[in-house]
Amino acid sequence: MKILITGATGLIGNELVKQLLAKNHSVHYLTTSKSKVVNKPNYKGFYWNPQQTKIDESCIYEVDVIVHLAGANIAKRWTNAYKQEIIESRTLSSELLYNLVRKHPNQVKQFISASGTAIYPESFATVYDETTTETEDSFLSNVVKKWEESANRFQVLGLKVCKIRTGIVLSNVGGALPEMVKPIKMGFGAAMGNGKQIQSWIHINDLVAMYCFAIENQLEGVYNAVAPNPISNQELTTVIAKTLKKPLFLPNIPHFVMKLILGEMSYLLFSSKNLSAQKIINNGFQFKFPKIKEALANLYS
Ligand SMILES: NC(=O)c1ccc[n+]([C@@H]2O[C@H](COP(=O)([O-])OP(=O)(O)OC[C@H]3O[C@@H](n4cnc5c(N)ncnc54)[C@H](OP(=O)(O)O)[C@@H]3O)[C@@H](O)[C@H]2O)c1
User: Fold this and answer.
1) Which residues form the DUF1731 domain (predicted)?
2) In whole numbers, what is the pLDDT of the chain averaged over residues?
3) What is the three-class DSSP state of 16?
4) Is the pLDDT score of 101 beyond 90?
5) Which of 26, 91, 106, 249 is the most exposed place for a label (fewest CB within 10 A)?
6) Domain map of the chain by residue range?
7) pLDDT at 4
8) pLDDT digits 0-9 by tens, 46-57
9) Residue 197 pLDDT > 90, yes or no?
10) Ligand 1 pocket residues where CB is under 6 Å
11) Whose alpha carbon is nearest atom 21 of ligand 1?
12) Residue nearest (by alpha carbon) to ligand 1 atom 28
């Protein structure tokens, strides 16, 4: 199959491209950096600028599936201007793709969009799955709602729409994990707040395998991309320290301290999301790293 990917140069996109090429799929990708456009056999880059509604329309040629990963990184200070960028980088880009598919002759059958777990209500004991209609009222939850609405529009064009609500992606080259590992490696590690907040995580290899699974099985609807065994922030901090063979002796860091440092973005460290992986498992997907100990050992041993 030929897959058009946005955000292909990011943390998840990079790994997804590797996997798709290894499976003999061919990849077109859209990038906002002209310097990242390369043209290799089965891997062809195209320039776009969603803010200026610019897109190289030839990117759609012979494409079967679109995977929309692009979006401004949420781990930067949430000023009002940056909040706007977080939203628009996902929705305007989706709209540009929508207009491309609508206007340009094509054979696209499926639209897969990255999405987030922030949409779910805060939870400790209650495990939420994809059937829940309850949502949280927070900035990031509202981003996810707008992001998913922009993906749903593709249904009007007769495409299958799949939304991958992704938890904390564990990778040793980017994202949240190296930021957690850094202080622990230096001997200054500590859990956040009371450490009870539940972190629904997924190993990058499992996430990428899930995207491939969604493509190869033409999945439709919402799927949580989280491992079947979420853990508390306290446990996660402890397992990281054990994996790195580092001591943990400092007291937990109070919420107000992180709020002073990070502002509203401290939400990322303190929100609690206890989420189910059952739907994708029921569809036949097998996790390679269902447990945190093995996932971290794979990344850091
Ligand atoms: N990593 C996680 O833990 C996690 C968890 C939940 C959801 N997600 C979501 O999954 C998607 C991919 O995540 P990731 O970790 O791979 O992100 P990433 O490493 O930050 O990469 C995102 C890519 O999006 C493109 N991009 C950045 N700013 C943009 C803008 N203003 N307009 C258009 N494109 C822009 C960039 O590609 P170019 O430079 O090539 O244009 C960038 O490489 C994101 O939407 C993210 O929110 C990630």
Assistant:
1) 253-299
2) 96
3) helix
4) yes
5) 249
6) 2-167+202-226
7) 98
8) 999 999 999 999
9) yes
10) 7, 9-13, 31-33, 36, 50, 69-74, 85, 89, 93, 114, 116, 166, 168-169, 175-176
11) 10
12) 72
